[in-house]
Amino acid sequence: MSVPARTSEVIGILGGMGPAATADFYAKLVSITPGTSDQDHLRTVIWSDPTIPDRSEALLGDGPDPTPWLLDGGRVLREAGATVIAIPCNTAHAFVPHIAGHVGLPIVHMIGEVARHLTTLSPRIHTVGLLATAGTVRAGLYQEWLDRSGIRLLLPGAASQDQEVTTAVHAVKAGTHDDRTAALLARAAQRLTARGAQAVIAGCTEIPLGLRADAVDVPLVDPALILAQALVRRAGAAHTTG
Amino acid sequence: MSVPARTSEVIGILGGMGPAATADFYAKLVSITPGTSDQDHLRTVIWSDPTIPDRSEALLGDGPDPTPWLLDGGRVLREAGATVIAIPCNTAHAFVPHIAGHVGLPIVHMIGEVARHLTTLSPRIHTVGLLATAGTVRAGLYQEWLDRSGIRLLLPGAASQDQEVTTAVHAVKAGTHDDRTAALLARAAQRLTARGAQAVIAGCTEIPLGLRADAVDVPLVDPALILAQALVRRAGAAHTTG
């Protein structure tokens, strides 16, 4: 007797950017997958390569292009049997156009999924704030997708971006985040809500590790969770079609 | 300019048994790896196949042999570039002798590492209690390794094993664990310490997800953490040789 998989989908996670965010993403994927035993869960292969060069530095012209590392990771995932790729790193999505045609697998686009999700909220979101790396901001990743959805994007001012958001992201990556890190992120979020943001996107996978949702008085949108939900829907593992 | 890996080691995690324990194990591995940036972390490939048949059922004669699934996962990890395999599932170690000669990679033996760790504690541990699945208990996995180390093993009575430990492990696997689950595990642990256990092994990777270390008045040994520490030491990523 063998135990057949409930779905032929094998989730491929191109991770390591950073590694703690990858662990957090996989934990979220497991926690939202419906089921009562191990065997109800999705087969998943994770390539976690923390040596992939820093995405923000590349986008700011200060470091090597991570594209060859991402292509290599995509190849590992395909050869391991993955049928779809998810990349739980916002900034890495700047490089998706460079790899999408070469990895031989569909990529569920985290930022596209967040834009789609925002259009489903009620009351309707007209203005959203973004906490993200300088690279994600510079690359205009959310701008592009939200423009298509008719949602206005608010970005932190230069000082808040540098002294609050970037400082906090580096603290999470270094494993040194604490109450002060949370306070930096909460202050950056409050500046956005004060300017009219009806929701705030935690647009770097490290941010939900440093900032609690209840520290922000509008919905805090976690792209990693939205991506996990999209994968579960896609795999047909969801009990509802939500 | 490329960013060279600090070590040629690529950690292979044969997981999915269960998936939440795999996510937890990877989070532990990341959290104990010394470093201040993504690039200090270990390249890791994870094959998480929750469809692997239940290890306890197989050992109790109630289900299919998971060996073919484990061999297949080992092959995936080797082909993905792993240089060493870790299996964050205690019960699956009953099948390690069936796969060790076939996967073509060294396997860091979690249970062997726990036995080694126990011999290093001060004051010296003479008697240790075990909370584990019925399959792990039946297979005598800890018994075998602790015997070699001269440490006496205490097991829960049949009623405690069935009504407390097994019930709690199933609750964690179903994602329904709560304060009642924690109380079941704490009671089972207390029965062992009352009989003289100087430490308790959380000998199923689901147990640390349901039981807090401070609910037990002796050291609670987490085999997943011990395994993660062994991998970091092996990879030479540790700053100390502890």
From TrEMBL, chains A, B:
Keywords: Isomerase
Transmembrane residue ranges: none
Keyword Chaperone carried by entry: no
Keyword Ubl conjugation: no
Sample GO molecular function, one term: amino-acid racemase activity
Database matches in InterPro entries: Asp/Glu/hydantoin_racemase, Asp/Glu_race, Asp_race
PANTHER family reported for this sequence: ASPARTATE-GLUTAMATE RACEMASE FAMILY (PTHR21198:SF7), GLUTAMATE RACEMASE (PTHR21198)
Family indicated by similarity: Belongs to the aspartate/glutamate racemases family.
Protein name per UniProt: Aspartate racemase
